[in-house]
Amino acid sequence: MTMNAAHAITKLTLENFRNYRSLSLELPAQPVVIRGVNGAGKTNILEALSLLAPGRGLRHARLRDMDRATEAQENLRSEGPWVVAANVLAYGETSHMGTGRDGDASIEKRITKINGERLRGAAALAEHVCVQWLTPAMDQVFVEGGGARRKLLDRIVYGFAPEHAARVSAYEGAMRDRNRLLADRQIADPYWLSVLEQQMAEHAVAITLARQETIARLRTALEGELSHFPRAIMQLEGVLESWLEQDIPALDAETQFAELLAKARGEDTARGRATKGPHRSHFHVVHREKNRAVEQCSTGEQKAVLLALILAAARARANWCGLPPILLLDEVIAHLDVDKRRSLFDLIQATAIQAWMTGTDAADFKGMEGFSTQLEVADGAVNIIGKTVTSNA
Known about the structure:
alpha+beta, seven-stranded antiparallel sheet, six-stranded mixed sheet, about 25% strand
């Protein structure tokens, strides 16, 4: 039994990344199981793959903290800037992508290239590859506050609207510039404030529309068969959301929001931040079977709803464009009961998803032997069961 994913990493190369001096993996377009003891370097591989998406990866680490380091005279010393490169299959064609920390130690900047062409920013990666992840650190996403929920939603949105990453970045940049102008009344030129508020309004409406459309896709996917996983009721609340739900045209919403920002200058100056906008929207999630807000559910129920959202997004993207995202599931399987585990494996196979999954126990992945690549990791050395791998710890 074999499975070929339409969207997959078929080669991964690491240089000076975390505990890997060098690693080269060539893989078929199918799921990947990474086994090893805690601390062996399993999550480091997933983190490297997460850097093929906009943002700072699944650990949200500083770039220099990902450099491989050795002990020299009792001090950790970087062996040089890290590099992650991959061949990515999509629609039958393979693209070569690479990203790495800029060698200038005085700046926190990474370089990104696709097919040898340098990109202006990492946000453009979303136009070429879709990577979603779920890690133990995300288990508290529903109780950490609005910011964590919005980041979760926005990362899902990237899979349906690649330009969303650039819009969020541009909105936040204009908002920071406006905050600085408001903070210094000597340079708070009304004209430049109006320009920034118009930029914020244009991006804000586009961001909100993309979020609303994605939530609608998730709702449809959650109505489909997703055995043994809970359903979720989702609602996005905010000023722009209420206007757009009343069918106010997007251009009118832009004008109204720019006017709202202008009226709020005094309040925003006093508070030192913008008090209205998509950065303040509330993403509410309710466990439908329990009829209870997810943050009020048990830890196990929260994990199940979170995984259900990630799987619903994968199914929705497969239905939308034929390419499900590449999923990175770190230490997820061990926390699922037998029925949920079987349902997850069935969905991965039926939807042809390249899921990269980590764990310590081979028994947790029983049922995937026939359609997955099995890796064993120990102290930065990686072996594909039945094959030879180029790897140096």
